[in-house]
Amino acid sequence: MKLLKEKIVQHGKVLSENVLKVDTFLNHQIDPVLMQAIGEEFASRYKDAGITKIVTIESSGIAPSMFAGLTLGVSVVFARKRKSLTLSDNLYTAQVHSFTKNETNDISVSKDFIGSEDVVLIIDDFLANGQAVLGLLDIVEQANATTAGVGIVIEKGFQTGGELIRARGIRVDSLANIKSLANGKVEFFEEDST
Ligand code: 5GP
Question: Which residues are recorded as binding 5-phospho-alpha-D-ribose 1-diphosphate (predicted)?
């Protein structure tokens, strides 16, 4: 997605060979115009997939998911990273290991909000080693719902997550796919023309 790639080049900060900081438009300050375009792009790619629900993870997956949900006319459910006092035991739970933070956390979704009748589009901000998406897939499976695909804003294609998820036969749509962050420079795979 051209607009997104331009934003990454203009505002992204390469923190290391593995980590890209995009706090100016996605992870802290949020650019609503860009989020709307991203949400509409996901919605257009999945418009014929019979999506009934979008499932994401707090907090940075929520903004693009909202616009996709608005366009597709479906609700957005975000997995919580910490147990909320108002969430009961009625939960689907999965473990997610973060390589960047080197910690494992539980994520959870109330059983009230995903059911066997649902066709789910999973959305997240980054795809790195795939652990967050695997956790969300686990929750969708526990609910006996169907996963139509995974929409990712920024995939780091040089890490293992994309391969891991696609090897399971799951459709993954990333709107920017980074080939390398070497030498402080963002280099993209060039396969996508949106
Ligand atoms: P994974 O579970 O695929 O290894 O990592 C995905 C999660 O880690 C994303 O939800 C995102 O929050 C975080 N993450 C991974 N790599 C990056 C990165 O380069 N930059 C930022 N800002 N977040 C990242």
Answer: 128-132
* pLDDT digit string, tens, across residues 48-93: 999 999 999 999 999 999 999 999 999 999 999 976 666 567 999 9
Residues forming the annotated binding site for 5-phospho-alpha-D-ribose 1-diphosphate?
A: 128-132
- Alpha-carbon distance of 96 to 34, in angstroms, equals 28
Query: ipTM exceeding 0.95?
Result: yes
Interhelix angle 62-72/32-45, rounded to 10 degrees, is 50
Answer whether 140's CB lies under 8 Å from 79's CB: no
Total-model pTM: 0.96
Atom number, ligand 1, closest to the C-alpha of residue 26: 22
Ligand 1 centroid distance, CA of 70 (Å): 25
DSSP H or E run through 171: none
- Which residue's CA is minimally distant from atom 22 of ligand 1? 21
